[in-house]
Amino acid sequence: MLSRCCPAPGPETRDTGPGQRSREPDTRSGREAAGRANPSARGRDHPLPRGQSQSSPGRLRRRGPAPGALAGVERDEVTAQGRPAGFRAWLRGHVTLRPPPSRAPMAAVRALMAPRLAAASALAPLPGNTRMPSPRAALHGSAPRPGPKVALVLSGCGVYDGTELHEASAILVHLSRGGAEVQIFAPDVPQMHVIDHTKGQPAESETRNVLTESARIARGKITDLARLSAANHDAAIFPGGFGAAKNLSTFAVDGKDCKVNKDVERVLKEFHEAGKPIGLCCIAPVLAARVLRGVEVTVGHEQEEGGKWPYAGTAEAIKALGAKHCVKGVTEAHVDQKNKVVTTPAFMCETALHHIHDGIGAMVKKVLELTRK
């Protein structure tokens, strides 16, 4: 490509006599050394001191620093014969040297993230005016949106002693897709107990708080359930996990004789009386069955069917609470149109995760539809 634009650089020629011409290599380092020893012996491509120039034909005009320092060197002129005086001189005259990319943006990012990373790892507190980014706005769509405002009520963090994380996450994804604005709540109470999820056994020496543990799922943006009011929201959703039966109620211990956390009971009654929809999945429908007499809910099938529905006995307990149980598949949601209560089995069934997500998606969709009626 270069050969089409400019003559290829090569060794210089000089006349040695009539009809004779010899070639000598452009040994620049030798010329520079000679120039230092004898200034009068400088070659044609050796720069003159700054401010001086050679005006004779065939000589180069240069400005800038000494050879080898490319930064700041301006384009060389071409000799009168139309041929570059040496490869380096030609290169400087025809190739644009770009400065290396600035490191300033990355330095700014590192400076911005350093205090946040330190705070996240509990190594150092945040500086006085530095604030963590708003995770709720980024993940849960809590920034003002045109869709309905939904309260999500958690019961801790972890399937055996709190909220089932996959169910909570699926609810948040489908609410986000539906354009809803979400605010997350949990009661400020101790957990019934703490389960070591690697063993499935209680950790006798540990105690945890439901609000504090739920904040893990909410990425820190959590509100005490005592502050939840149906007047400020269009719907409420309760994911499952054993926390619904241990921390939001005593169903795991007392069955049909269970008691429900006073704020959970109040919230369920407020939304019901206001005609606002309530969604529940997995084991959480027992809360509605206990508080809202005669409500229709589902926890899936009423027979274990070879282990596919390991918690099928819950259906009988729901009936004992005075509610009506409706058999539904894992990808389905049951809608009690009269009470505006929507339920789906979720992890009451042993099945693939995407089936759980599909059922929760059906529940969320129906809840959002009911907010518009």
Automatic annotation (TrEMBL):
SUPFAM superfamilies attached to this UniProt entry: Class I glutamine amidotransferase-like (SSF52317)
Descriptive protein name: Glutamine amidotransferase class 1 domain containing 3
Organism of derivation: Equus asinus (Donkey)
InterPro entries named in the record: Class_I_gatase-like
KW DNA repair (keyword) present: no
Superkingdom of the organism of origin: Eukaryota
Alphabetical UniProt keywords: Mitochondrion, Transit peptide
Biased composition (Basic and acidic residues): 21-34
Presence of the UniProt keyword Transit peptide in the record: yes
